[in-house]
Amino acid sequence: MNLVKTVRAIWSQNPLAMASFIMRDLPSFVRLHFLYADVQSGLLECLRNPMSREDLLENLGVVRSEILDALLVLQRQFGTNRASLQ
Prior knowledge:
mainly alpha
């Protein structure tokens, strides 16, 4: 049985159980995608050495600074920041 059929079966039997299942795994799902974005963007590598937000914008070639801000907030929440920003 594939995943979609399993999810549909559980949802049709007990929507509350399915919602509980999704909510339990949601933080792990978000963290995994965050780490992927962190590595792909080069942010994790850049933060090996402390630098200012402006230096990060320049070093990463960021076009939309709000995306960098969101990644930095998530880093603080997940505790993956290895160096502090100046």
